[in-house]
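Single Protein Entry

Contents — chain, fold
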Amino acid sequence: MSSFTRDSEGMLSVGGLRLADIAASHGTPLYVYAGDGIRDDFTRFAAAVAPVNGTVHFALKANSALGVIALLARQGAGADIVSGGEMERALAAGVAADKIVFSGVGKTAAEIGAALDAGIGQINAESQQEIEMISQVAAARGVTAPVALRVNVDVAPKTHAKISTGQRSTKFGVSTSQNEAATLYRQMAEDAHITPAGLAVHIGSQILDLDPFERAYGALLEFGTALRGEGLPVPILDLGGGIGVDYQHGEPTDFTAYGALVEQIFADTGFRLGFEPGRSIVANSGLLMSAVIHVKHGDNKRFVIVDAAMNDLLRPTLYEAHHAIQPVGPLGSMEGPADIVGPVCETGDYLGLDRMMPSLAGGDLLAVMSAGAYGAVMASSYNTRPPAGEVMVLDGELHVLRRQRSVADLLAEEELPAFT
């Protein structure tokens, strides 16, 4: 069942609260998250992979609102982070340090040092240079660093090129061909300042076909088994994330088949597993609410100009991504197609093109659906537009996660030089 439903009068609602009432009290543009849906999706994912020995880390890059992280931490989630800033968010939200996995290709020495000081559970290294840096930072502190090697198994994930990370043409991971990854793992095992934690793989995002997972996981298992055959410690196989969601209809993701695949491949292998779902936990439990400024009729085209823009939700512009768009009020009869566009001074500033819409006028509210992932986290203040605020409805109560900043807030972040 979708997190967002229509009540008896046709009004779009969440957790028993009407979105129109939320907009009246908190303004627009506004991200609205269904906390119950986020909690349910995490619970269903955890249940799907429960037959194997694994730990689930929520990928903060999908949604790093402190309230969202804290909600998931209460359900037992760890965190998958890709920056020192995300580590600070995870810790502030109550994630235990030993349940944090630090991924990413460009960690700085300062970030690695902070991670070791915090005692995080695992650092996923992606190059020989990074492994050497981790060793040096750990040596300076007199500690050993828990390091997993992210490998590239050259599997095309059948997804958008900008979120595809499994091929050797990308910047991610160390190739398993020509013995490069095996040589690095042997060096890690011999390093006095590194504790080998295992292997990691992540082939991309928004993957709707299980076949790429099956091929990548099979290759990872084969490689890990071969290293164990040499007597090397390989305790963990980190499977990453990437499960796709239904952006057309916003229906909850079925994790059953994925869980069955993981159990089929890894049951009785003796490896502990790590999982890093992100999008599939939060995407369909979030929306971006926006108000119509006015409707402009061009040559054979209707433009619905709204107060949300590409600075609030970049995915349509960046990825040509589709988000369903609904009136917050009763649906009514459709007038015809329209482009839903924002005020930013770019032709690419749109939230949806050629969408069937009813008659609309200034002040009407629209909901851009399935915006809980890669929405607010990618927002900017382009055109000096304060990004949308964020609220969550959980167990029938509304919680403000981040108020919408003002232009004054943006200006206060800068310094005006004392020119002479």
